[in-house]
């Protein structure tokens, strides 16, 4: 009986069929990356808002004031009384009598001098010039509630983490395509509910679920693409990342054309329903079918693949074997029991955590540094495109370890330099920051490849799932670290990022090189890597 790899070589390892499936499933990367980075535009800080004094709405309606006139009556006296107050988080302690004059509604404060106007902290009476432009204005995530925006992104990443374990297990048990299609349906439905959530609690619940299903779509499409190509085509795991970058590039265009956060949310969610059409054009992974003892179905799909690729399988094939079955119940101890495995596991876990935290931190930082958010976001996304090409050019020439280490170290140095560059030379600050973004993107994409190459077949899926879960943990921490430290000093997060990246670059040098070697089959093979 031939092995699966032997049959795949005869059917075509990367023919017309695989290229079609690769192109279709790769579109998932566009929608997933848009969800991943959407907080930058969903959570844009409102330009003008203030705290409304009780009775102001009725008086404004009676007097026919515009929002600007109401703001002037509310904020200007407050600013005169307290130079440090801009009327956003504090208001005058009192209420307007709706029967008083429209020309001087604050006349009854005349007994107070300008420096002694009574103030009180604002709680929920904010007014926004553009009330539906952002999640912040929709749910009053300002002043003392500003941390809730950090929470919404952390909840999304918690959904990613949950999806990695639950849907990853489900895809191994019930099949790649059923879980992929279920996840696409879940992302679309949850995305619609998020857009029309009546309150912030409902918003968080379904943002968590959208993150969970979103991770299911990205993870399963990645697995399917890598399982239907030959072992010499590992590079598709890098190329598929280009579609993730395309989503980052497209997102600012969507946000620029759509003025409301609900519109943006729907634009990045509804395309997932189109992926349900893949049910008729993308088959189940034949590798998975073989692990479930469904050899006849696998062979039927392989014959279809061969036909689409213009090739023919031998009519004598009646069954396919698959070697190297996985450990039935792998555990974390299997990953740290021997010295080389222990070193690889700990370093890779740190590399996943660092790459995700820095990458997501730099993406979200664009929303708080000022400038043209749409243009800056587009440029920062466009510079990621060379990352995949640089990896493709270098890893088969100089290996994996050196580009992995250098990209982390360069990212760390770039973050450190950016933090101390003066604001009056923005072109240089932007250039250095862009170099840091490109470098951490390279590191993030290389860790996908290196992780799978450093684990034996018996532990590969479990090892990659466990280590990559640190990626989502980094994403949970990133918004709190960025926004809270930036409140102290805008560039302080960059200092933290630089330290983490340089340490990661040095640790990566302790990993064995995997250039030009076969994938390890057993733990003993890993221990013999130099």
Automatic annotation (TrEMBL):
Transmembrane segments: 21-42, 154-172, 179-198, 204-225, 237-258, 264-282, 347-368, 374-395, 402-421, 427-450, 462-482, 488-511
Gene3D superfamilies on file: MFS general substrate transporter like domains
InterPro entries (alphabetical): MFS_dom, MFS_sugar_transport-like, MFS_trans_sf, Orgcat_transp/SVOP, Sugar_transporter_CS
Subcellular location as annotated: Apical cell membrane; Basolateral cell membrane; Mitochondrion membrane; Nucleus outer membrane
Membrane-protein topology: Multi-pass membrane protein
Major facilitator superfamily (MFS) profile domain mapped to chain residues: 110-516
NCBIfam families per record: 2A0119 (TIGR00898)
Protein name from the UniProt record: Solute carrier family 22 member 3
